[in-house]
TrEMBL record:
Subcellular location: Cell membrane
GO biological process: cell wall organization; polysaccharide catabolic process
Name the UniProt record assigns to this protein: glucan endo-1,3-beta-D-glucosidase
Organism lineage: Eukaryota, Fungi, Dikarya, Basidiomycota, Agaricomycotina
Source domain of life: Eukaryota
Length: 301
């Protein structure tokens, strides 16, 4: 990062058509990690794994917390896929989170230089948080609010979330990029992760057919290393263990060129999630802070 804030976003971001293969990690902030912890982890994402981005997951409702995220990302040289978290309990707290985030994006001079996109999520269609027409209206309003900052807006969602709402084409039409939850472990046809490519490709093809050439990212993307209430397979053949978690990312590595050959320079993917102490079973790191398996994914092919 430069020693002082740039004066313009012109030429600041790499073109999205250069973004494919591994991009970074989902990172849960429900624990309201300190700025020093955020900075440590973000620098590790950048320096150990060559990550470009961190995609936020969950929510910290500490007033002004996104300022700490901005400072940590700036220090680490990472971009942020910010998130307006709806949660799982209904209610309107997401509106406060939205307004707080937008306030910081406008007031913090560094924010627009690290915030690559704002996501409505996670899985608001699948969780039936808002009717799809209202969600589309929220995206449209957010794009207007953030237009002077040139921050795009999207929705973080499963293909099935769109499908169970009749396709929700109104949402697909207004989002700036297609941010996909790719979790084939839960598919009714799942078995082991090394056989999951047809499931991944099926969902990608669904988006390709309806996405009108928009850039695609797989952001909540992974395979759990253990099954427990709330993370249970829908197929008796689906296997949740460290071998299969590792195998899923190996599968993406093996299909790097297939992902690269998609619209707008290819599909970029995140690993969900940084550590098991953020979401059990999905972490690249265990609760004890050790890598669960060798992980050095390709950032190009």
């Amino acid at each position: 990062m430069p020693s002082s804030n740039p004066t313009s976003l012109t030429g600041w971001w790499c073109n999205a058509t250069s973004e494919y293969a591994f991009l970074g990690f989902s990172y849960e902030v429900t624990d309201c990690q300190s700025k020093s912890q955020l900075t440590k982890d973000f620098k590790n994402i950048r320096n150990t794994f060559d990550g470009r981005y961190v995609r936020l997951y969950g929510a910290c409702d500490k007033k002004g917390y996104y300022n700490d995220v901005v400072d940590a990302a700036w220090a680490a040289g990472l971009g942020v896929h910010a998130l307006i978290w709806f949660g799982f309990d209904g209610g309107n707290q997401w509106k406060t989170r939205r307004d707080d985030l937008f306030g910081i994006l406008h007031s913090n001079p560094k924010a627009k230089f690290v915030t690559r996109v704002v996501q409505f999520g996670s899985e608001p269609l699948f969780d039936d948080v808002l009717p799809h027409a209202q969600l589309a209206a929220q995206v449209t309003a957010a794009k207007k609010n953030l237009s002077s900052l040139h921050i795009p807006v999207t929705v973080s969602e499963l293909a099935y979330g769109y499908q169970e709402r009749g396709g929700a084409q109104d949402v697909l039409d207004v989002i700036d990029s297609i941010n996909i939850h790719m979790l084939p472990f839960f598919d009714g046809k799942a078995s082991t992760s090394d056989k999951a490519w047809p499931l991944v490709l099926r969902d990608l093809n669904w988006y390709i057919a309806r996405g009108k050439g928009k850039k695609m990212y797989m952001d909540e993307n992974g395979w759990p290393s253990k099954s427990y209430p709330g993370v249970e397979p829908n197929s008796p053949d689906a296997k949740a263990d460290i071998t299969n978690e590792h195998g899923y990312f190996t599968l993406l590595e093996n299909h790097c060129k297939d992902l690269k050959n998609q619209a707008q320079g290819g599909v970029g993917w995140f690993a969900h999630i940084y550590s098991d102490d953020q979401e059990p079973g999905y972490g690249i790191y265990s609760d004890s802070g050790k890598l669960k398996f060798p992980f050095k994914p390709s950032t190009q092919c």
